[in-house]
Amino acid sequence: LVSVLSSAIIVYRLPWTWKCSKLLMKFIHAGLNTIAMILAIVSMVAVFEFHNAKNIPNMYSLHSWIGLTAVIFYSLQLFLGFAVFLLPFAPVPLRAALMPIHVYSGLTIFATVIATALMGITEKLIFSLKNPAYSAFPPEATFVNCLGLLLVIFGALILWMASRSHWKRPPEENAKVLRPIGETPEGTEAESTMTDGSNADKSDLRINSEAARKQNLKLDEAGQRSTM
After folding, report:
1. Which of 74, 148, 160, 164 lies most in the core, judged by the most C-beta atoms within 10 Å?
2. Prior bond to 57 cis, omega within 30?
């Protein structure tokens, strides 16, 4: 979940993907989340089977409670993402209303996954290290503590990238060249209402689109420089 879910979160935030179509990025985003969900289910089954084989109680620790909660909410997030944003049945106003909730809940689930991993590795150390104990600070404790710090730093970087406006995917102006004639991009339905206007309005729209395209090209170039 930490590695694959983080990739799914930032797949829209990488400047070199901005030239790809929005639909392609949606499929990549959905595919990565599906892979993460499958791996999470396999992991949970393995944990329960291991506990049952070793006669270890299930679902008694805070780590297990928060971990199960994260998986449940992640499955709901994945289902609603497929139903609302990937399948072409949900109306545009519903998508616009749910998008901030979808983004916020995805980041919250990712932060919860990081917290679950930190609690899990600490719990494993406490139970596994007997001689010397965890409190004696053996090399294993140093290694796992460093791993925990790296997890915190990694999670902070992902959340920072997901919350910065200059990492946000530009509007779909650049994708108009690749879009079939007459097709309306997602999020620009307001432009489709102008097709019955006068020729002057259409001319103004073309001028504005050209200016926006040039601005997005500058953003693309600047974004690529920021990742080098």
Report:
1. 74
2. no
> Is the CATH code 1.20.120.1770 the one for domain 1-172?
yes
Residues 79-120 pLDDT 10s? 999 999 998 889 999 999 999 999 999 999 999 999 999 999
| Alpha-carbon gap, residue 99 to 2, rounded angstroms | 22
Distances (CA, A) of 221 to 61, 121, 131, 174: 49, 41, 56, 13
Residue type, 141: A
Helices 139-163, 92-128: axis angle to 10 degrees equals 170
Angle, alpha carbons 225-156-166 (nearest 5°) = 35
Please state the rounded mean pLDDT for residues 205-222. Answer: 51
Average pLDDT over residues 128-134: 89
Distance of alpha carbon 66 from alpha carbon 76, whole angstroms: 15
Q: How many angstroms separate the CA atoms of 209 and 163, rounded?
A: 26
- pLDDT, tens digit, for every residue of 159-181? 999 988 888 888 765 444 334 33
Question: Alpha-carbon distance 181 to 167, whole Å?
Answer: 29
Phi, psi of 200 (to 5 degrees): -65, -40
pTM of the model: 0.72
